[in-house]
Amino acid sequence: MRQLDLREYEASEPYRLSIQERDELTDALPSLSIEPAVGERADYRLTPGSTVGALEFGGLSVLIEPKISIPQLLSLACYAMGMFKHQERRWFDFERQSALPDTLAMALAAAARRAFARGLLHGYLTHEEALPTVRGRIRFDDQLRRRFGLPLPVEVRYDEFTDDILANRLVKAAVARLGGMRFRSPKARRDLGRIAGLLDNVSLVAFPPNKLPEVSFDRLNQHYRDVVGLSRLILRHSAFQSSRGTVRAAGFLIDMNTLFQEFVTQALREELRVSDRVLRSEHRLPLDTQGRVRIEPDLSWWDGGVCTFVGDAKYKRTRAHGVPNADLYQLLAYATALDLPGGLLVYAQGEADIAEYQVRHAGKRLEVTALDLGGTLDEVLASVKRLAQRVHALRDQAHRLIRAA
User: Fold this and answer.
1) Which of 160, 281, 322, 403 is most buried, judging by how many CB atoms fall within 10 Å of its CB?
2) Which residues pair with 348 in a beta bridge?
3) Is the pTM of this model over 0.70?
4) Partners of 300 in the beta sheet?
5) pLDDT reported for residue 244
6) CB count, 10 Å around CB of 343?
């Protein structure tokens, strides 16, 4: 299998690709820019967009390295899913040069070893089936409807104490999906294989990435929180055995645009100590009085039925110095439609400069700030505290105008 090593938003060295490989890359990674190398017939320069991670299909194995470190990327992804509410856990500090699949495999294996130290978690699983003997309770309604009075088999419902429960199924599904990838480290393969062996009696379930079930934790299963959280992260961002156009691909991909928005939203909620009912994400609202055009700001703060803050989180590569006009126009539309004195644009550090724009004849002030993702998780969260202060300031200004009206 050929290896293509790429880096987020950077043009690669020329890679020789067949027409089929080129077209499969286009199908599998729509955000990837493919341009012919100057003076070459079959060589191409590949420039990834905001999608990073690892993907395998056909005879190609593609690694797209993020601008930030892989441990930092995965820590931010975990936090965005609500997995680091109380403290940072250093799950991903293995070999600093480890590829993304290797890092995930070793982190999952380490979390599983801690969780399984007391043995696999067991629980009661309810079964409903037809048996030749009575077990548990007879489902009389189903017996009459399906068996027409025949005594056997018997429709029954019973509880079984088993390790084939949701938490273990999530871990097994994550192990299976990672196991379908190539690892550069033999240790990653060995570690994952040992965990897979412990889960032989657990059912392998195909969980859809966008509808992952939640696991409720209490004092009896609290030790499973880390391994279940990592498993959900892997399953959410996996592309295993999924079709992208005509290509069947396996991998782990993260869209940095989505991750940045989700991280900023989750971190601000934690810092401001508000729920998702107060600080809302992508809340759809009408732009015009007839409600024919909808707006969907990334961030909006609601005091009851009144919006007192609006903002957008933008992880993007700007092609020119300064803030793209389209982003400012969008924020102005939000502030105008919600009758607010202004709004806030939050970019990833390095994509836009801190700035402030006073809109002529509108009385709106549009603020632009940046969040540096390059430090440790603690350092990023310290920057979020300063961001929360700007949110409070804009909200207080809106409150003053509401009281004065």
Assistant:
1) 281
2) 371
3) yes
4) 280, 310
5) 47
6) 26
CA distances to 70, 349, 378, 380 from 374, rounded to whole Å, are 11, 8, 11, 8
Q: What six digits make up the tokens of 237?
A: 């961002």
Q: Token match 């009575």: residue? A: 134
Letter for the amino acid at 212? L
Residue 270: both structure tokens together = 């934690």
First to last CA, the chain: 67
Partners of 295 in beta bridges: 285
Q: Where are the beta strands (DSSP E) in 154-290?
A: 154-162, 242-244, 247-255, 279-280, 285-286
Angle between helices 70-80 and 377-404 (to 10 degrees): 40
Measured distance CA(8)–CA(3) in Å, rounded: 16
Q: Give average pLDDT by consecutive 10-residue segment, the chain, 405 residues.
A: 91 93 88 89 91 88 90 89 60 63 90 92 82 78 73 79 92 92 87 94 90 90 92 84 54 92 95 95 93 95 94 76 83 96 91 85 93 88 94 93 81
Q: 357, 363, 286, 370: which is closest to 328 by C-alpha? A: 357
pLDDT at 88: 45
> Whose structure tokens read 């930030």?
68
CB neighbour class for 290 (10 Å; exposed up to 12, middle 13-18, buried from 19):
exposed
Q: Of 326, 339, 365, 323, give the one whose Cα is nearest residue 287.
A: 339
